[in-house]
Amino acid sequence: MKASDIHGRDLYRLEQAPFAVVPLGSFEYHGPHSPLGTDIVLAEGFADLIDPSLGGAIYPTVPYTACPGKTNKYKGTLTIRPSVMQEYLIDIVVGILEQGIKKVILLNAHDGNMGLSRTVAEYVTGQHTDASILLVNWWQMVAVDDAKEIGFEGTKGRGHGGPFEMSAVKAFRPDLVEVEQGDEEFKEQTPLSDHPYILVEGTPVSWDGYTGLIQQISEDKGRKIVHKASTNLNELIKNWLY
Q1: Distance, C-alpha 236 to centroid of its chain
Q2: How many CA atoms lie within 13 A of 147 on its CB side?
């Protein structure tokens, strides 16, 4: 159920909801082929695919957030200072807890929200010890090694504005993704290590506000991605609840 549709006389429905969902997006440049609201489309799209029988209350998507230096230099991006965004998200989550819902999913579609939402979750659960906050990045609901099965050739497809992300957007809104023949493509770089690491650069290699072999974007690939991600997302939520 959408929390914004609940009438004032029916607030008991929020109190009875087993969990709440806060979709997290951004308003950010994703390349000439992609909408500025890419992460909003994805956050809302996956929130709408959560099994309604689970009884969750879906809150409105947070559309603006902190964006990294490598994208906020591009026109179109609207970025919020991280400190402001952190306080804002804390207030949202605490407000939901005070409605009586003790389980909250932060359903994220923007890389820049990852660290921020973890900090918020740690702080809020320190103040509300009966709270449980599940952080989900939608793209992690599909294994990287599924690239060949999805249909990508010579690429994992991952990356900002790349074929994995934009195929998923095309599955939700095929009218919003438009790749032209002359749009530049960027090959993936060899990882620095097989072990997890985080590299932050103002201007990454193989980058112009987006990356990847974008000619491989397709609605068919997107439908496969969305199906896998939503199936695994619902399974995760069920395991969390029960």
Answers
A1: 16
A2: 17
pLDDT at 89: 98
Per-residue buried b or exposed e for 148-172, using 16+ beta carbons within 10 Å of the residue's own CB: eebebeebbbbbbbbbbbbbbbbbb
Residues 6+ apart with CB under 8 A from 38: 26, 28, 30, 109, 161, 165, 166, 169
Q: Residues 103-149: pLDDT tens digits?
A: 999 999 999 999 999 999 999 999 999 999 999 999 999 999 999 99
How does DSSP classify residue 105?
A: E
Residues 6+ apart with CB under 8 A from 227: none
pTM value is: 0.96
The pLDDT tens digits for 14-26 are: 989 999 999 999 9
103 neighbors 240 (Cβ within 8 angstroms): yes
Strands lying side by side in the sheet with 103-108: 57-58, 20-24, 103-108, 132-137
CA distance 36 to 188: 23
pLDDT in tens, 213-229: 999 999 999 999 999 99
Radius of gyration of the chain (CA): 18
